[in-house]
Design goal:
Blueprint: E1 2-9, E2 12-13, H1 17-32, E3 39-46, H2 59-73, E4 78-82, E5 87-94, H3 99-102, H4 110-126, H5 128-131, H6 139-148, H7 157-176, H8 180-183, H9 195-198, H10 202-205, H11 217-232, H12 238-248, H13 259-280, H14 285-298, H15 301-307, H16 314-329
Parallel strand pairs: 1-3, 3-5
Antiparallel strand pairs: 1-2, 4-5
């Protein structure tokens, strides 16, 4: 089982070590005995945000984020059960701490871990009639599992820290044993049936590898936008989308003499080619050539020297060799 329990305030997502630890305790309980759920995700809305405004954020932006938070909070609680995945997703109001109290660095508070477990158990009990109607979900078993976590909470704050670090190391060891596709938890239904065969290496799907097509911020954002854009522009040349995307981000699509413009263009061109492969199983020749040119620029020592980038490394060369190989052998559309 994987459990993700995180907090949200109007200007921060995720985190809060006490919430993390509550999720980790649930994971270990589920490893010992089946609790009927394989994936569990919780967003606890922290109702008294006390973060100072971020540097540079004006009052209008601050008001926007507060309004967005309140709009989301007004739709609570939210419960979703996906039977095929045995995945339960919850969102509810939390009253155990302010955002500032929850996000204190190295906050291994036993008191807050207990409070988080008690609040989650109380919410599940309140929602038991709704949960009982979810086909395939054994609500009673899952609620009992959560309630049992109280007895597993380490005795002191120091023990909480020890447990947290040990759990993380154990999780890394277990994940290392999994095939990469399972470790990355890819939802293949979102992609073309050929994508898994064409892109048969972890590099192509990693969201953290800097040389992965979608492992950087530019590539990640482009893939999401491309998915939406192609729904209404299926016959439009994909390079038109690339130019549109770069202009939307404030970059010149044809400018090649500026460091940031060049780097962003190259990341986007590579992400576009591999985004098409993931979503459609193929890539048109013009987009392929743009991606190959971008890879060539990124590996060119003279370009690195000109812009003050680090010189190409063996890791970069090995990763880009894999990208080139896919672009060279993949089936091509000739439609544009």
């Amino acid at each position: 089982m994987r459990a993700y329990i995180s907090g949200r305030s109007y200007d921060a997502y995720g985190g809060g070590l006490p919430l993390d630890v509550a999720g980790e305790l649930l994971e270990e309980a589920a490893w010992r005995a089946d609790c009927g759920v394989d994936h569990f995700e919780v967003t606890a809305f922290l109702l008294h945000p006390s973060f100072a405004p971020r540097t540079g954020r004006d009052a209008t932006s601050e008001a926007y984020f507060q309004a967005e938070f309140e709009a989301d909070r007004s739709r609570l609680p939210r419960i979703r059960w996906e039977r095929s995945k045995r995945k339960l997703t919850l969102a509810y109001e939390s009253h155990i701490a302010t955002a500032a109290e929850m996000h204190v660095p190295y906050n291994y508070s036993r008191r807050l871990v207990l409070a988080a477990i008690d609040e989650l158990a109380a919410f599940l009990n309140d929602q038991r009639p709704i949960l009982a109607k979810k086909t395939g979900l054994d609500a009673n078993l899952f609620v009992r599992t959560v309630e049992s976590l109280r007895a597993d909470v380490p005795a002191t704050d120091a023990d909480v820290e020890t447990f947290h670090k040990a759990h993380r190391e154990l999780l890394k060891a277990l994940e290392a044993l999994l095939p990469w596709a399972e470790r990355l938890e890819i939802d293949w239904k979102k992609f073309h049936p050929s994508a898994r065969t064409l892109l048969d290496d972890e590099l192509f799907w990693s969201e953290i590898d800097e040389f992965s097509p979608h492992g950087n911020d530019t590539g990640h954002d482009l893939l999401d936008d491309l998915r939406r854009w192609r729904r209404s522009h299926a016959t439009t040349p994909p390079l038109d989308f690339l130019a549109h995307e770069l202009r939307k981000w404030g970059f010149d699509p044809v400018k090649q003499d500026d460091e940031i413009d060049t780097y962003t263009h190259d990341q986007a061109a590579i992400a576009l080619a591999f985004g098409l492969i993931k979503l459609e199983g193929s890539c048109d020749p013009a987009t392929r050539d743009a991606a190959l040119a971008a890879i060539g620029r990124q590996q060119d020592p003279s370009v690195a020297e000109r812009f003050g980038w680090r010189q190409p490394t063996p890791d970069m060369d090995a990763a880009y060799a894999k990208l080139r190989a896919v672009l060279a052998r993949m089936p091509m559309d000739e439609g544009f």
